[in-house]
Design a protein that fits this description.
Elements (H helix, E strand, L loop, with lengths): L2 H5 L7 H52 L39 E3 L10 E4 L13 E2 L4
């Protein structure tokens, strides 16, 4: 008689072994999951800030060319009727970028912020329903 036959060789895992493995994976998910999500959300905020800085630079280029700020972001892509010296389009692909949450960036000229001549911001992760203190502004980026 071989050793495997004497010990009662088996194929596969017992229910108890499977339950212990599932419990370990669940505990790891509970401990690691929130940390990963926090980092992911922080990365989206950083991406929005970087994109806002790029738009701010593009708006500044428009200003240097035409001596005025665009009335709307679309002016960066399509020449406005009243533009005298327009050297655009100022954005690649002829499209306005979206924030990491799939929403359009908000632009208002003249702005209501005391930090700059216009307002340029993203509503952030909570989108349009977000309170103003959760918005990501180019002047805070």
């Amino acid at each position: 008689m071989s050793i495997a036959q004497a010990r009662g060789a088996r194929d596969g895992f017992t229910l108890m072994e499977i339950l212990i493995a599932v419990a370990i994976v669940a505990i790891m998910g509970v401990l690691v999951g929130p940390n990963i999500m926090t980092r992911f959300m922080g990365a989206q905020d950083k991406a929005a800030e970087a994109s806002l800085r790029g738009l701010r630079d593009t708006i500044q280029t428009y200003y240097m060319d035409s001596s005025k700020y665009p009335e709307k972001l679309r002016d960066l892509i399509k020449k406005p009727a009243n533009a005298k010296s327009w050297n655009g389009p100022y954005l690649k692909d002829g499209q306005l970028p979206e924030d990491p949450w799939g929403e359009r960036y908000q632009y208002k000229f003249p702005g209501t912020s005391k930090k700059g001549p216009y307002d340029l911001y993203s509503y952030g992760k909570n989108r349009r329903g977000a309170p103003k203190d959760e918005w990501i502004s180019v002047w805070d980026a």
